[in-house]
Amino acid sequence: MGALACVVLAAGEGTRMKSEVPKPLHAICGRPMIDHVLRTLDELEPERMAIVVGVGADKVCSVAGDRAAACEQAEQLGTGHATQCALPALEGFEGDVLITYADIPLVTTETLQALVDHHRSSGAAATVLTTEVADPTGYGRIVRDSADAVSAIVEHRDASPEQLAIREINTGIYVFQAQALRGALQQITPDNDQGELYLTDAVEILVAYGRPVTATVAADPAEVMGINNRVQLAEAEKIARDRIREEMMLAGVTLIDPPSTFIDADVTIGRDTVIGPGCHLLGETTVGSGCEIRGHVTLRSATIGDGVLLRDHTVIEESAVGDRSQVGPFSLVRGNSTVGRGCKVGSSAEMNRSRLGDGSKMQHFSYTGDTTVGEDVNIGAGAITCNYDGIDKHHTEIEDGAFVGSDVILIAPITVGKGAYTAAGSVLTKDVPPGALAIERGDQRTIEDWAERMEKRRRKNEEA
């Protein structure tokens, strides 16, 4: 098998996106388009990879990283000119060159590998990836000769009535023999209305010189759709999400209502996990096996262990939940917090930059901020840690086996020692020694017949 190089054209302005963000960086399922393309190409194991950048070059290169050599196209003078800009990165390379685009993110490795394989088996100087569409309006038509080779690529505006009836179109993705590509690029001219250099002209030049040009058809036109505006971006997002959902279900994940479940490309989910309707699993989220994720849960770059129950409307952001723990409903865990194994976080509770040790319970309407909670701790309903004094954040330590009563307020910095108790309704500002009980309450006053006295006052006011 010969060597392969890949070139990604990513220099276009993308004016129809109406955005300050370079087009290759618009996201599909949580990944920039250019990242989808580069990951797909990586699976082909190319010997070299180059990316042609222009508008927003620094931002695009920061996403591409060291996966591809950056080649600048200072002026956007057409696809042929963009490919010329990539030639320095191909210096001395004599294999096959695959050329594709940053705004065609849905094409699969299997389709590109089939294109390369067909190119090599045919011995062609160039091979075009094509597809057939019901309405080819606006696309370049593939004209084949009697031997089924490509004889021309005719733009829609230049096509004859017979050619307009052709439904096989050019996707813009090619494989060239490197030597043939260099030779053809030297001969293309800006002899067109736009004054640009087109890569399709390189194909025309090879045909004119009698060099064989073949084509292979992508079975699914959706794979090769280009994205030029936000409507097409949304269409591509839907297709990509459908693929992810199908892949997850075939791998053993149950989705109660697949269309309402949004799963990003970098999410992994274990077998026998059940996900309810309206859930969003985003970013680099990992979910273990045997979990139950009920309706309208949002996980954003979260790590969820095995056998976890997340009740309705729970949100976990950049935080972790250990095996066999329960969270929610209507609870929020954020700020790189950690819920240990076998824990319970009740309804409408919140954790921020906090840790809950194994086996601990944090009941409903409670809050911990900048708090470390040990193992087997009980935090009662409505108990909170006051971590912010208006200027600085302060830490709270609740050691193993402590019991924090309902509606307790712990004003940080403060430590509740191992096995200590804090009485319900207390507002505590001092450390609680291990094994002690801390109580801070005013004396209760009971005023007899208060309701009767209030009723008399009400009637007197009405009579006045």
Structural summary, described in words:
The chain is of the alpha/beta class. It contains 9 helices and 41 strands. Helix 3 crosses helix 7 and helix 6 crosses helix 7.
Q: Indicate the structural class.
A: alpha/beta
Q: Termini separation (Å)?
A: 103 Å
Strand % is: 25-35%
Q: What's the architecture of the largest domain, going by CATH?
A: Alpha-Beta Complex
Domain count = 3
Order of strands across the main sheet: 12-15-18-21-24-27-30-33-36-39-41
CATH class designation of the largest domain: Alpha Beta
Helical element count? 9
Instruction: Please compute the radius of gyration using only Cα atoms.
Output: 32 Å
Helix content: 10-25%
What form results from the Cα inertia axes? elongated
Summarize the structure in short.
This protein has 464 residues and is of the alpha/beta class.
Keyword list:
single chain, 464 residues, alpha/beta, Spore Coat Polysaccharide Biosynthesis Protein SpsA, Chain A, UDP N-Acetylglucosamine Acyltransferase, domain 1, 3 domains, nine-stranded parallel beta sheet, elongated
